[in-house]
Amino acid sequence: xxxxxxxxxxxxxxxxxxxxxxxxxxxxxxxxxxxxxxxxxxxxxxxxxxxxxxxxxxxxxxxxxxxxxxxxxxxxxxxxxxxxxxxxxxxxxxxxxxxxxxxxxxxxxxxxxxxxxxxxxxxxxxxxxxxxxxxxxxxxxxxxxxxxxxxxxxxxxxxxxxxxxxxxxxxxxxxxxxxxxxxxxxxxxxxxxxxxxxxxxxxxxxxxxxxxxxxxxxxxxxxxxxxxxxxxxxxxxxxxxxxxxxxxxxxxxxxxxxxxxxxxxxxxxxxxxxxxxxxxxxxxxxxxxxxxxxxxxxxxxxxxxxxxxxxxxxxxxxxxxxxxxxxxxxxxxxxxxxxxxxxxxxxxxxxxxxxxxxxxxxxxxxxxxxxxxxxxxxxxxxxxxxxxxxxxxxxxxxxxxxxxxxxxxxxxxxxxxxxxxxxxxxxxx
Length: 429
Fold this sequence. Notes:
This protein is mainly alpha-helical and 429 residues long. It has helices at residues 2-13, 18-32, 39-49, 56-67, 72-84, 90-102, 109-126, 131-140, 152-161, 165-171, 173-194, 206-215, 217-231, 237-255, 261-294, 297-308, 312-329, 332-349, 354-368, 376-385, 389-394, 397-412, 414-425. It starts with a helix and ends with a helix. 53% of the residues are buried.
């Protein structure tokens, strides 16, 4: 299997599209392993994409695209602006709060970074904010959606790692809010240094805040309704994805009345484009993952790590460094599909809760999307903001530090992550 991994890395380095790099490296494994029936290749490719739980992903992607065309995003921007207008770097603060509010809508850090760069970027430039600073803020605050439900990464992790998606969803709330707070502190410090002054000296009146919250109530209720339905046993995560689509259509047509036929067609086209790429990656990753299990790679790595350290904290730090490097070169979806079946057995050997590890893992690999040399979210934000990646990276270090602080909190204080899922579902056995 190590030969297949090496082939995958070489193909990625040569610039081959990631789905084909995974598929060819999986075929290479079968070619080097005598006695394996080649029919398994077709079986694994189809069975991976036909999982009932995986059905949640296309449904939530479609729902997220629908919600971005129904006026929900516009109202959330207004609410975030009302809440943060008195803070230094006010538009940057809007980005952090909006990412937190949008976690239950977009579910994708790259989509969130692109959306906020388009919505908030022109206003940042008009106010004299540096383009690199704006790109850094819009990119890094997108990490918050890695944990706020319904995160696409958490759905993938829960499915592949056989971890309760309901527990993962609930576990993501507190780390997501902590990250929002740390991000806002980093933005405030940076804005003080660059003299990006607040819009007004005092917080908005309570009446204005309440009005903005009422206007955004349909978006704010969305993740809460999902959790209640899943926890109450009324819906599985996959069925809640179907409900999310119905919810978005209902709000767009009957409440805000902003979802036109043209916008609906554009939403369908965009969703199909997003899903075609993800489905190819899912199918080919099934072939690759079979090789991982067949060669007992998780057991080999477990023995290797145990020979290095018996300390779970040291082991977690080593795994985070590895995931961060992976995140710099590969997409979050790919890492989750390939690495989860390897790492979940390892962390269980060390007595680490897989729900806690899921939050740490998804934050780390999403963090990699915001760092050079191949950070997709970083390149996306820099391109939209019209600046070089170097300028964005120079302005990113306070936000990088904020992410590291969140990871350390999740590692050394596991009850902060596990408190809510244990409260709602009971302590995991």
